[in-house]
Specification:
The complex is a heterodimer of chains A (171) and B (338).
Chain A lengths: L19 E7 L2 E7 L5 H8 L18 E4 L2 E4 L12 E3 L12 H8 L9 H14 L5 H7 L10 H14 L1
Parallel strand pairs in A: 1-5
Antiparallel strand pairs in A: 1-2, 3-4, 3-5
Helix pairs in contact in A: 2-5
Chain B lengths: L4 E4 L3 H10 L3 E4 L5 H6 L7 E4 L8 E3 L5 E4 L4 H6 L1 H6 L1 H9 L3 H6 L2 H6 L5 H4 L41 H7 L3 E6 L2 E6 H4 L18 E7 L7 E7 L10 E10 L2 E10 L9 H5 L8 H11 L11 H18 L13
Helix pairs in contact in B: 5-9, 12-13
């Protein structure tokens, strides 16, 4: 590009806000990381801790693919900042199975073929784990309503409901 | 997101001190609306002050016989609290009609009041919007306005307030407790949200340096005769096109007290005292409910795509009042409307 005769004005570039240390207990393991304030919990899991089981779908709290459990409650990890979760226990889909045995929900999703492409599945399973812990859903209608924050664009809903019913009965 | 600084507030007075010292700062609690808006470049605070750990998470009995709900009680905890389920089931119903369980687990009671409109143009940072950029114009008035307001609109703004919970807090005549540099004050729920007029950038009468500390419910919960009916484009996890909260006190078939509010149709929960008054002393039946609906919708104006809301609201009001009168509130999990 052609240079003009006059010097470029000196631009003041403000220093970026400093990164902040945060300690999270991820799937039972204490993890210390240092993140920018605007790092979502989802990005901290995927990009800082290589826990890519939790998926980024819409990144706006509309699809549920990023659902994880924080202190046992299901939340959208895309709409929370990692720095806000200091000291909490985070359970992702990687933390559900124990000693080589699938979680009842993971087995039920296989038994009922409750997915097609699988992109929403880790969010569906974490959300269903939260739903079972809440103990508010009894009927299929109630499961559908309380799982409405998890979208499955393949449309595996009937199988997802059946899988959750199976896991509820066995839990 | 635009980079920002992050600090935590150690207590309520520290939160007030921090926000008063930095006009470019915002509080963050649940974050479900604010972080979303920051990702869309609609909000860009230079600092977030985290209030999520403040001790405002309890639900306590008041000496008047009501409940005082801490501003940081999550929406889901509020909906499932035994005192709310038993004494204020209309509030529980409305909360469970909104958002998803994940979002309700995150979203706070106080945050629900100050969530911003879902108008498409407010969210689209490249189009004119008087709420986002005062004086730039309203894109919705002549645009895609299917979800927009039909009541209380102005030439500057036809946005709606998206909350379900607030529609019921209006019906229950809650009080909003706030604190700021000048001290604490109480705001009647009907005075909390504003109509757009020519200042649509202001959603509420909360000052920028004030913090919501609690929501107080009066004793009366209308737990026998109530219903919350929410009409939307899909059966769950969508904002209301029209919603109705109805609460009645009956003596046999005769209406002793009536409360009615609409959601999804105005910049704030819509109540009309004359519509409630016309029901008093009357037999609870469809003809008097239709009269109340006519009064509720006086002055309603469609902007093209949302003309259907006027007729929809009229029918929804009659249906919701019937559900309340019969003691058969709308289920929020079985979606068939009876």
């Amino acid at each position: 590009m052609a240079q003009s005769g006059t010097a470029e004005p000196v631009r003041q570039i403000a220093a970026l806000p400093e990164k902040i240390p945060v300690t999270l207990i991820i799937n039972g393991t204490r993890s210390k990381l240092t993140v920018a304030p605007w790092t979502s919990l989802l990005d901290a899991l995927r990009d800082h801790l290589d826990l890519t089981g939790t998926k980024k779908g819409c990144d706006h709290g509309q699809c549920g693919a990023c659902t994880v459990l924080v202190d046992g409650r299901r939340i959208n990890s895309c709409l929370t900042l990692a720095v806000m979760k200091e000291g909490t226990e985070v359970t992702t889909v990687e933390g559900l199975a124990s000693e080589g045995t699938l979680h009842a929900l993971q087995q039920a999703f296989i038994d009922h073929d409750a997915f097609q492409c699988g992109y929403c599945t880790s969010g569906q399973i974490c959300s269903a784990a939260g739903l079972i812990a809440e103990g508010k859903a009894r009927t299929a209608d109630e499961i559908r309503e309380l799982m409405s924050g998890n979208i499955c664009r393949c449309g595996a809903y009937p199988n997802i409901v059946a899988a959750i019913q199976q896991a509820m009965e066995r839990s | 997101m635009t980079p920002f600084h992050y600090t935590r507030a150690s207590d309520v007075s520290d939160a007030i001190r921090q926000i008063a010292a930095d006009p470019a700062a915002k509080f963050i609690a649940g974050g479900t609306n604010l972080i979303d808006l920051m990702k869309y470049d609609v909000e860009h605070p230079a600092r977030l002050i985290d209030i999520s750990q403040l001790p405002l998470k309890s639900i306590e009995e008041t000496s008047a016989g009501g409940l005082r709900i801490g501003a940081l009680v999550p929406n889901s905890d509020l909906a499932y609290h035994p005192a709310i389920e038993q004494r204020y089931p209309l509030l529980a119903s409305a909360i469970l009609a909104g958002a998803s369980q994940q979002l309700r687990n995150m979203a706070s009671t106080g945050g629900n009041l100050v969530q911003r409109t879902r108008c498409f143009y407010f969210y689209d940072a490249v189009t004119p919007c008087n709420k986002r950029q005062p004086g730039s114009g309203c894109s919705a008035i002549s645009g895609v306005n299917r979800i927009n307001a039909i009541l209380g609109t102005s030439e500057a703004c036809i946005a709606t307030h998206p909350s379900d919970m607030c529609v019921v807090l209006a019906v229950l005549e809650a009080t909003v407790h706030v604190a700021g540099p000048a001290g604490a004050r109480a705001i009647a729920f009907s005075d909390f949200h504003r109509l757009p007029d020519n200042t649509p950038q202001r959603d509420t009468n909360l000052e920028p340096d004030e913090i919501i500390t609690a929501i107080e419910l009066p004793p009366k919960g209308f737990s026998a005769n109530y219903s919350y009916l929410k009409i939307r484009d899909r059966l769950s996890y969508a904002f209301a096109l029209v919603s109705v909260a109805a609460a009645l006190e009956l003596d046999g078939d005769t209406i002793k007290e009536a409360r009615l509010a609409l959601g999804g149709v105005a910049h704030k929960p819509w109540r009309v005292s004359a519509a409630e008054a016309v029901l008093l002393g009357q037999r609870a039946d469809a003809s008097i409910f239709a009269q109340a609906a006519e009064i509720m919708l006086r002055g309603a104006k469609g902007y093209g795509h949302n003309n259907f809301k006027i007729g929809l609201a009229r029918r929804a009001i009659v249906r919701t009042l019937s559900q309340a009168a019969h003691g058969t509130p709308q289920s929020q999990s079985v979606k068939k409307i009876r």
